[in-house]
């Protein structure tokens, strides 16, 4: 029983393994330009000095552009310009900042001490400077002599998180400017290099932002390469860096270097290789047929590609990859692992997660009669008293497991759940119809509400299989709810809206309803927009596949209640709508659209864009942690019998439903906010409006706040792209850029590669639009769908992720049970105690910001680029994000906005850019970090 509890725990909270390290960036990338192409920046002002951004930027002095790039005549061959006359040699120094782990176990501390002593005996770290220029006599890049990093032994006992070491060089006067640094680690352990600054050159300090793990030579005998923070398009690459640019990316693709020797094999955790694979590791057929899951990706079940790990196939199914079960780590490129601060945030919740999952499992195993909630007070007690055990029950548990009493005595605070925001201001708000409707505009999933444009709604599914496509909702059902309007008048006036989950659920309902403890419908809900600007539900349709022609259970319509019995039937119908909504939110809008569909663009960026490429520099903060969190999701969230299958109504068919949505619904050209609002009929184009759109529901918090951030991102991407791409030819001629997008589409989204709707990448406007959409999805869209999960969804009666009973028909035995004890029947239809507490524990973790979160507009690595134009645009973007936050605060204080203000109404802060750590129901990180 205890092992079962621990297995449940392993599937119920996210925490990186203790050995996981830090780091994000790597140097290098491909070069598709010939070595002899001109490297000039004649279309832009030369880079002469970096605009100051914080203390680090004040130290940046960028190399003056060559005379020919500035438009001046070149000097005569037999004489040098005065500024280019060099002494025979001069001293230079590399200042290397290494980040140490804050917490080391005894084994690691011993290894670190051994490295320090070995360093003193000559097994040191060696650095080499690589010039931007070619040696004319040898035809290869100019390189300095290798120099050992000094101070490792002397600083072995320093307790600081960041330790600075130096390497001294004597550089020939004709060396030119340093464009790269190589690092050879002859210690036994990897170390994390944060940055390198090379000083002493006439042009001033050269900055290298590294943020990467450097493996020892026993793991990889090749030195690591880090490039300067100066951005270079491929054709601008200095000749001394051309081959390094090409080689470094070839290593990242697994084509060269140590990883190339075993290209088809399993990736080691120390590798930095980026490759694609299908989702063939969600099931475990070796454990039995019930644990097998279909492969996602391919003709039968199209899906985006994920990061390849190369693990062996299972014994029983050669299509399936063997699993690595949590907490054993699964492969992502070494620098994509969580940093120490992220791991600390996840591990701090480990005891709470253990108790929250372990205790309900024990309670339900000993006392089956309390597996269900007896009343709403039992749900409330999770927040008031936690899982306080009655003495008789505690005695039973004590006889079975003696340490239970100690857990109860010492951990009462941890046994309590934090009160979700949704019931803090009004404990009963969730029961009201207006709150049910408001959450469609300002809740966890505000992206499915759409304007009804034709009545009745019509299905797109095959009528031969699923019956007549027309909805069963008639004018008679809703005419009395339209404020005196006819249905035609209400449609014409843009007053009728809908949540339509009919087509996404209907193909799976027979299989879902055959599962033990799972019951679902395909639902449609109609809303009327009142004169006050709020929505009210006017009809709910619950649909099942017809068993016979004219089957009366196939389509049932419920309208706002007029008596006690119809009130409870209405509440059950709303709960089924919320369960549909929760499944679509988690499987499609959240996981598919912001996690899975972004992974190919991230993999391709690392494979095809050099670290020197300006577009990689733009994308870098928006790719942080995503590959690691997706890998963890495959281990414990979306895997067979994982948290998602256990906690949501579709059960084992969850990921098949996600694949169905990818095939039928997902289109990148409709993923941007304006396009999505127009597609759903929630807005129309209007150039006179601030964002070029007129919202048909003026107080639509997700959309109004989202457009503030969308416009800020759009202007930032437009300004940044204009800095580097002055013409269509400059976009079409950038081979790295074109390869990035082409590979993301043709390989990363191979099952949809031939779709006609893929955006073009032919002009600067195309590029800015594509980047705006990607940045939006990984930042604001993900934040709006993720960080409200516990605050807005932690009270299960408000939003049950799983339903266990259908709505009874009059004459059924279950209908009599409903009439006799309605609130007990209602609670028995919701998740059980164990299901509830497990689900709450997971979304508690998923809704938490870590202390090392990086928010929209923030870049902690202040020396990320040496381009003053890019830095100026970044500062303006940060300022605009701050102004958007101030405007959101004003809106939340405006009593006229009734969808975000009023008695018991929560403000809408999910798009407020900044946040403190913890569960705050606000904050927009740069990337998909959880």
UniProtKB/TrEMBL annotation:
Residues 231-930 form the Lipoxygenase domain. Residues 64-74 have a biased composition (Low complexity). Its cofactor is Fe cation. Signal peptide: none annotated. Residues 106-228 form the PLAT domain. Residues 1-93 are annotated as: Disordered. It is an enzyme of class 1 (oxidoreductase). It holds the Pfam family Lipoxygenase. This is Lipoxygenase.
């Amino acid at each position: 029983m205890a092992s079962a509890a621990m297995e449940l725990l392993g599937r119920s909270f996210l925490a990186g393994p203790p050995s996981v390290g830090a780091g994000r960036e790597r140097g290098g990338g491909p070069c598709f330009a010939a070595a002899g192409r001109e490297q000039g920046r004649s279309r832009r002002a030369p880079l002469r000095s970096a605009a100051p951004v914080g203390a680090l930027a004040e130290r940046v002095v960028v190399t003056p552009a060559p005379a020919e790039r500035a438009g001046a005549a070149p000097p005569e061959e037999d004489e040098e310009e005065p500024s280019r006359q060099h002494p025979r040699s001069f001293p230079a120094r590399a200042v290397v900042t290494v980040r140490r782990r804050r917490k080391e176990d005894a084994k690691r501390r011993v290894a670190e001490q051994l490295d320090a002593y070995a360093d003193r005996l000559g097994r040191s770290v060696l650095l080499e400077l690589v010039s931007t220029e070619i040696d004319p006599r040898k035809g290869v890049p100019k390189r300095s002599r290798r120099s050992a990093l000094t101070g490792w032994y002397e600083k072995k006992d320093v307790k600081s998180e960041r330790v600075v070491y130096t390497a001294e060089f004597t550089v020939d006067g004709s060396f030119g400017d340093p464009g790269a640094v190589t690092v050879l680690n002859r210690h036994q352990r990897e170390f994390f290099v944060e940055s390198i600054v090379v000083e002493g050159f006439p042009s001033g300090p050269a900055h290298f932002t590294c943020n990467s793990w450097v493996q020892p030579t026993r793991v990889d005998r090749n030195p690591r390469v880090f490039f300067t923070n100066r951005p270079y398009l491929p054709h601008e690459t200095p000749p001394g860096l051309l081959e390094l640019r090409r080689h470094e990316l070839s290593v990242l693709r697994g084509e060269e270097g140590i990883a190339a020797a075993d290209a088809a094999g399993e990736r080691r955790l120390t590798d930095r290789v980026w490759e694609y694979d299908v989702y063939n590791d969600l099931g475990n057929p070796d454990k039995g047929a019930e644990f097998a899951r279909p492969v996602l990706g391919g003709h039968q079940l199209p899906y985006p590609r994920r990061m390849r790990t190369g693990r062996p196939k299972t014994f029983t199914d050669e299509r399936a990859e063997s699993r690595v079960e949590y907490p054993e780590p699964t492969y992502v490129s070494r620098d994509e692992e969580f940093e120490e601060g992220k791991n600390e945030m996840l591990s701090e919740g480990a005891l709470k997660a253990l108790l929250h999952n372990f205790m309900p499992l024990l309670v339900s195993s000993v006392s089956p009669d309390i597996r269900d909630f007896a009343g709403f007070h039992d749900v409330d007690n999770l927040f008031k008293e936690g899982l306080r055990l009655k003495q008789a029950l505690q005695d039973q548990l004590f006889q079975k497991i003696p340490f239970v009493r100690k857990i109860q005595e010492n951990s009462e605070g941890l046994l309590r759940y934090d009160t979700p925001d949704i019931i803090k201001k009004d404990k009963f708000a969730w029961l009201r119809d207006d709150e049910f409707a408001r959450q469609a505009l300002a809740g966890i999933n505000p992206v499915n509400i759409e304007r009804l444009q034709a009545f009745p709604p019509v299905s797109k599914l095959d009528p031969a299989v699923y019956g007549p496509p027309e909805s069963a909702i008639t004018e008679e059902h809703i005419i009395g709810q339209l404020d005196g309007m006819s249905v035609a008048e209400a449609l014409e006036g843009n007053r009728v809206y809908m949540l339509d989950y009919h087509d996404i659920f209907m193909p799976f309902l027979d299989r879902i309803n055959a599962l033990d403890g799972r019951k679902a419908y395909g639902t449609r809900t109609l809303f009327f927009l009142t004169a006050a600007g709020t929505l009210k539900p006017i009809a709910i349709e619950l649909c099942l596949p017809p068993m016979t022609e004219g089957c009366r259970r196939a389509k049932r319509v419920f309208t706002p209640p007029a008596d006690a019995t119809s009130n409870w039937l209405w509440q059950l119908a709303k709960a089924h709508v919320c369960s549909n909504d929760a499944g679509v939110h988690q499987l499609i809008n959240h996981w598919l659209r912001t996690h899975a569909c972004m992974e190919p663009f991230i993999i391709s960026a690392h494979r095809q864009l050099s670290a020197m490429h300006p577009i990689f520099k733009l994308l870098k903060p928006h790719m942080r942690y995503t590959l690691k969190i997706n890998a963890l999701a495959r281990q414990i969230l979306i895997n067979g019998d994982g948290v998602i299958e256990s906690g949501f109504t579709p059960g084992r068919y969850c990921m098949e439903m996600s694949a169905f949505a990818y095939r039928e619904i997902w289109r990148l050209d409709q993923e941007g906010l304006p396009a999505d609002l127009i597609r759903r009929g929630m807005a129309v184009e209007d150039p006179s409006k601030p964002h070029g759109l007129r919202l048909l529901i003026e107080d639509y918090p997700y959309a109004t706040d989202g457009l503030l951030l969308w416009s800020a991102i759009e202007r930032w991407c437009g300004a940044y792209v204009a800095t580097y791409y002055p013409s269509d030819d400059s976009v079409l001629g950038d081979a790295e850029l074109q390869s990035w997008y082409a590979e993301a589409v043709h390989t990363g989204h191979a099952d949809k590669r031939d779709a006609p709707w893929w955006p073009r990448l032919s002009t600067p406007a195309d590029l800015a639009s594509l980047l705006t959409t990607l940045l939006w999805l990984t930042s604001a869209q993900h934040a709006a769908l993720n960080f409200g999960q516990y605050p807005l969804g932690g009270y299960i009666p408000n939003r049950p992720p799983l339903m266990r009973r259908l709505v009874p028909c009059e004459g059924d035995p279950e209908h009599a049970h409903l009439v006799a004890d309605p609130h007990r029947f209602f609670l028995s239809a919701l998740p059980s105690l164990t299901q509830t507490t497990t689900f709450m524990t997971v979304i508690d973790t998923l809704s938490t910001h870590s202390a090392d979160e990086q928010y929209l507009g923030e870049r902690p690595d202040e020396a990320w680029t040496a381009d003053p134009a890019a830095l100026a645009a970044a500062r303006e973007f940060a300022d605009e994000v701050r102004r958007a936050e101030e405007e959101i605060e004003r809106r939340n204080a405006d009593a006229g906005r009734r969808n975000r203000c009023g008695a018991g109404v929560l403000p809408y802060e999910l798009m407020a850019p900044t946040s403190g750590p913890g569960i705050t129901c606000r904050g927009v990180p740069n990337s998909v970090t959880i």
